[in-house]
């Protein structure tokens, strides 16, 4: 409501919350605000798609419930659309909250054009859904957000959009992203596994070549290995590092991690063997 651009509609999609969201929204009495409550599904794609279908405007912008927009966010992005003739745009961000470790870096820019390889292979930009605005007309060409993903739906969606359309990234920090521990830790492994699926699907569609596919898959296997080492699941860590080494056999760090996870696995088995006592 504090946006300097005033021709907006606010569609709030409540994924089965048990707080007083509905009561708070009723206080505003604004015809520009529409509130929909769903039975809880836990699928971000389903929630976003519902809001997209309800939207009447030419442009769609996401704002997750724990993030904040700068009050000139919409105005600046609409100018960006006119200036660069793009179908979507996203921006840099600032982190806030109790779990801020580091701020996203400054980027040169803006970057305009086909951003697919810069995003998926180069991972050149920071991407947060709350910074994204796109033209609704893109759904004449691509599908809505894939509702099968639990935590990688946004990643898959922005990659598919970037593959098909000219887009733009700007360095202005137009959104503030709240950093907290619970969801990021709980869904981290699921996100990595789903990102492997995303990469594989683009490879099957010939959007990635074999080298790009192997490099990206190896990166996610390595992250999965580290994640499981840190949570002391040496068996799964060994499995993921083994997959990493199959794809990148000449990188010594993978073999070091594989040996480390194997030794931890062996130690864990020995320490829990019947009749063994450790002081």
Q: Can you give keywords for this protein?
A:
single chain; 279 residues; alpha/beta; Spore Coat Polysaccharide Biosynthesis Protein SpsA, Chain A; 6-stranded mixed sheet; two-stranded parallel sheet; globular
Task: Note down, in words, how this protein is organized.
By secondary structure, the chain is of the alpha/beta class. Among the domains are: 58-180, Spore Coat Polysaccharide Biosynthesis Protein SpsA, Chain A; 209-271. It is built from 10 helices and 8 strands. It has helices at 21-26, 44-54, 73-84, 116-120, 153-164, 182-186, 188-204, 210-230, 234-247, 252-271; strands at residues 10-15, 33-38, 59-61, 68-69, 88-96, 111-113, 133-135, 167-178. The strands form 2 sheets. Strands 3, 4, 5, 6, 7 and 8 form a 6-stranded mixed sheet that branches. A two-stranded parallel ribbon has the order 1-2. Helix 1 (21-26) links the parallel strand 1 and strand 2.
Main sheet characteristics: 6 strands, mixed
Predict the CATH topology of the domain at 58-180: Spore Coat Polysaccharide Biosynthesis Protein SpsA, Chain A
Tally of separate helices: 10
Give the overall form.
globular
C-alpha Rg (nearest Å): 22 Å
Poorly predicted spans: 275-279
Distance between the termini: 62 Å
Q: How many strand elements?
A: 8
Structural class: alpha/beta
- The named CATH superfamily of the domain at 58-180: Spore Coat Polysaccharide Biosynthesis Protein SpsA, Chain A
Residue-averaged pLDDT: 92
CATH class of the domain at 58-180: Alpha Beta
Helix/strand layout:
Elements: E1 10-15, H1 21-26, E2 33-38, H2 44-54, E3 59-61, E4 68-69, H3 73-84, E5 88-96, E6 111-113, H4 116-120, E7 133-135, H5 153-164, E8 167-178, H6 182-186, H7 188-204, H8 210-230, H9 234-247, H10 252-271
Parallel strand pairs: 1-2, 5-8
Antiparallel strand pairs: 3-7, 4-8, 5-7, 6-8
Helix pairs in contact: 7-8, 8-9, 9-10
